Amino acid sequence: MTQIAGERWAKDLHKRIGESIRQARAGRGMSAQQLADKTASLGYPVSRSQIANYESGRKQSLDIAELLVIAAALDVPPVSLLLGGHPDRDVEVLPGQTMQTTAALARFSGDDSYESNTIARESIPASPPALLLVLVRERAGAERELAAAKAVFELLGEPDDDARQIAHIAELTKRIERINQMLQATADEWSSDE
Fold this sequence. Notes:
This protein is mostly helical. The protein folds into two domains: about 5-115, 434 Repressor (Amino-terminal Domain) (Orthogonal Bundle), CATH 1.10.260.40; about 130-194. The chain has eight helices and two strands. A two-stranded antiparallel sheet has the order 1-2. The longest helix is centred in the C-terminal third of the chain and has 32 residues, at about 160-194.
């Protein structure tokens, strides 16, 4: 891979992000000034001219703080500005490395469930940050399942089903407690490694 190819990739990446910002802003009926005002209200102002220059391609750099605050001001996930466009199109994620947007999203987020051509990982992630992400997702799923089970119990609870529903709710509660313990242990281990 040549330096020229890397520079072309970086230029294309900035162009894609600029177009994504412009499309998200236009889709919300916001002017560049309104977007700038919103970033200021979030505590990290990005000027109207910076936004306009980035959207037009005159500005070829966007730092992470700007990306995050612009995404928040537009109420879109930051990754949608990075990847842009249709989820089934190809995107160059690194110089010379092209993949479908869904695969890039899976790679970026560490969640392979987005990619239909990939079998979900069954093994424990190798790094503490990856394990924390897996555990947080697992806890969120268990919390959603617990909320649904409680709602069903409250709405449809009948004497015949009470014991089974109560046991299910108790099992989900214990599962969440175990996940929280694993999260704490992993976070403690990670912080002690630093």
